[in-house]
Amino acid sequence: MKKLVLVLALVCATCVVSCEEENQYDENGELLPEVPMDLGKLAKTIAQYALGVFGVSMLLITVTKTFGGLSYPAARLSLMNLLRTNPNQAEQVARGMKDSFGEAIGTAMKTAAMIGTPDPAAIAATTTPTYDGHASAIASRWGGLLSKGKLYVAAALGGFALGVSKGEFPIISFLLALLAVGAFIRVYTYKGEVESTIVRARHEVLPEVDRAMSSGRYNFPPKPAQ
Question: Is the entire prediction scored with pTM above 0.90?
Answer without folding.
Answer: no
